[in-house]
Structures are given as C-alpha cells and as structure tokens.
Design goal:
The chain is an alpha+beta fold. The protein has eleven helices and 21 strands.
Length: 414
C-alpha cells in the first residue's frame, strides 16, 4: 500500500493576487482579444488585460461552488482580465501552479464554504484548504501527465475557435460586404476565398433594395425563407434518463461549439427534442449570445429555439446569420419582458437577409461545413481525453500511481 503524500494548507504554498482584480460592468466592456474571467471561466472578451502569464483562478462565489458542474479552479495562461468573483493565485517555491489546479479539482471544499443562499469561498477559507503536497518533482510529473491531456483539449478548443473565425470572415466577405462582387466590378479576375467558377458567375453591378445596394440577381428575404423551426415537445416520462440534455448553462457565449451537456435523468419538466447538427439558440436574454450546433441527438430547455435549414445547402449560411452579432442584436430588440426578456421564433424568422443564388450558398457550405464537422469531432475527442484525465487524477493525487512508475514501465516495453 502506498504511503499518502504529506499535506499542506493552500495559503502556505501560494502567492495571492486578489488585490489586482478589477470588475468591469458589461455595459462598460469594449470587445477585444483578451479573455475576461469570472467565477466559472471566461465570460467575455475585452480590449485590455490585467495579467500576463500562468495563474490559477478559484471561484469566490456562486452556486457552482456546491454543484461543481464546471471546475471551481482553472488555469488562465497569457494575457487576460479577471473580475472580483474569482481568486487569483500562483504556487510559491513549494508548489507548482498547474499541480495545485489538479489538486483542487479533486478536493472536497464543501466544509470551507459559507453562505446559504449564495455559497462563498473567502480568501481566508481558501487559504485553509488542505491538499496533498508531494515533492516539486512529483508535482511537476503529475501536472505534466495530466497537463498533456488538457493541452490536447485546449488545442482542440483553440483550433475550433480559429475555424469559427475563418468561417465568419468568409461569410462576411461573401454575403454581408459583397467583397467578391465589388472586386469583380473594379476589374479583378479572381477572389482569394472563392472558387474561380463561382467568381466568374458573379454580377458586376448592384441593385437598390430596402437593405441597401445588393448584387444583381440577388434578392431580399427573411430568415424563414431558408430555415425551419423544429419544435418537438417531450415530457420527462418520454425521455430515457441517459439522454443528453442541453440547458442554457451548457451553452457558451459567442461560440457555436457546444461541448458540454448533462443527462435528462435530472429533468423534471417538459423539454424540446433536437437532432445532431440542428441549430440551438438561447431565446432567454438573447444578449448573452448563446447559439450553437447540436453535437448529438438529445433534449434541451424550452428556453432554447431549435431550427435548421430548409435544405442542406443553406446550413452554413443560416448558421452564420443566426450566430452573428447583427442577428443577436435584432432578437434582443424584439424581446419581450424586462427582467427576463425572451425572443421567439416568429420574430426570429422575420429577420431580413440578402438571399444569394442557391449555387453560391451551396459552394459556401461546401467550403465551410467541413470546418464545423472538424469542430464536432473535436468535441468528442476532447471529452474522451477529459475522461482519461479524470480517471487518472485521484490515483496520481493519492500516490497510488506515480509518474515515475509509468516511465519505468515504458522503458521496459521498448
């Protein structure tokens, strides 16, 4: 039987940076490239940063401290901003910052929380949390093994974000700014992101419309011309408890990558059924900008609108419209209710769009849809990597499995 690692209080092995945190109201934030962190991770992206480097963020308040549906401790690396809902620390000379993140992931922190209505982890209580503390070499070995899995997950996340940005850029160029048509009108013979045969078929002049000048032979329509709502209602008794469930809490902001879901076993009210590759739109407080592609079949909250294209050719065109800032602003303006504003499919479906020839939408889908296919595949790969990490975590932290043992075994097998 292995000997347990020695233990230490978190406050004795860390440096605290809480005094450098600065909250910024949502109305005062300026969009930019830097993550803005709160108690449960990134809540926005802003134009400036407070920290630059590797830090450990720990939730200070929120129901998630009890439910732990998302990690209560997570690493932030690079340039970022933090509000006052997350503690921020690094390991000192006795502790590796990455290791502390994994140790906290496995720790029972329930006894350190205060507050009944809203759980809180004060700085004093956080400092008192006891964690296993092996030698620095062992800490780094544990963090290295688990970190390799998390690095692969992070690589998938970053690549997914990059593909989303690329698809968005092509969409705006083709269907919002009409850059290829403008280029052809000025004498260009090709356009970088567009196949030559499609570019050759474009007009060179524009026609006035209620949305402004649009390319000749294009038309002004509304979203329902290329989309259909899928409203299949189900009750808890109709659903297998193991069925994937997506609520608003599972949907990230400003990203079509829906990588998280729960199970319908905990669902107690009526829901909507969705199918893989349908589009999910959070209609409650639409300004939260929660729109994404369903990665699998399942059920979702009735605060989510489920819809898809009228035909496969329009999928990417529809998704890019539905996840655009312009569309979210439109749905927000159409929402009813003050404290809990909601939009609805009727208003969403009347959103005005410039409709290109179907051949152009089809070619756009051929170029962009494989990007979304990659994103969906990466979601499931990352979940498998996370399962392996979570399996190894308690064994490594208990000392039952040691990284050096794994290295010796590898040497014997070579």
């Amino acid at each position: 039987m292995r000997n347990a690692w020695p233990r230490a209080k978190l406050g004795d092995v860390t440096v605290n940076y809480d005094a450098r945190r600065v909250p910024v109201r949502e109305a005062d934030r300026k969009p930019g490239p830097y993550p803005y962190y709160g108690a449960s991770g990134v809540v926005d992206h802003v134009d400036d940063y407070l920290f630059d480097g590797l830090y450990l963020l720990i939730a200070e308040d929120g129901e998630n401290l009890r439910t732990r549906q998302t990690p209560v401790a997570f690493l932030a690396n690079g340039r970022f901003w933090v509000n006052n809902h997350a503690h921020i620390i690094t390991g000192n000379e006795r502790a590796d910052t990455r290791y502390l993140c994994y140790a906290l992931a496995a720790a029972d922190i329930g006894g350190y929380l205060t507050g009944s209505a809203m759980p809180k982890l004060s700085q004093l209580a956080m400092n008192a949390i006891e964690l296993p503390l092996p030698s620095l070499d062992d800490q780094r070995g544990i963090a290295g093994m688990l970190g390799a899995l998390d690095d692969a997950i992070e690589h998938n996340r970053r690549t997914s974000r990059a593909l989303e940005r690329l698809a968005r850029a092509i969409f705006r160029a083709w269907f919002v700014d009409f850059e290829p048509v403008h280029a052809k009108a000025t004498g260009a013979t090709s356009f970088l992101s567009m196949p030559q045969n499609i570019f050759d078929s474009l007009p060179t002049t524009f026609t006035p419309s209620e949305l402004g000048p649009i390319p000749d032979e294009w038309s002004v329509g509304v979203l329902r011309n290329v989309s259909t709502e899928h409203r299949e209602q189900v009750t808890p008794k109709d659903v297998d408890p193991r069925t994937p469930y997506i609520g608003l809490e599972h949907m990230p902001r400003r990203s079509v990558t829906l990588a998280e879901w729960g199970q319908a076993g905990k669902v107690t009210s009526g829901k909507l059924r969705f199918r893989a590759r349908q589009i999910l739109f959070g209609k409650l407080r639409p300004y939260f900008h929660k729109v994404g592609i369903a990665p699998l079949d399942g059920v979702c909250s009735t605060d989510i609108v489920v819809f898809g294209p009228t035909s496969p050719e329009w999928f990417s065109f529809l998704l890019e419209h539905a996840s655009s800032n312009d569309f979210v602003s439109y749905t927000n303006a159409c929402s009813t209710g003050t404290k809990m504003p909601r939009t609805n499919w009727g208003d969403m479906s009347r959103y005005p769009v410039v409709k290109p020839p179907i051949e152009l939408a089809e070619k756009f889908n051929e170029i962009v849809s494989p990007m979304f296919d990659w994103i969906l595949e990466a979601i499931f790969e990352s979940r498998k990597l996370a399962e392996l990490r979570d399996y190894l975590l308690p064994k490594l932290l208990s000392g039952y499995v040691r990284v050096r043992d794994r290295a010796l075994l590898d040497e014997e097998n070579t």
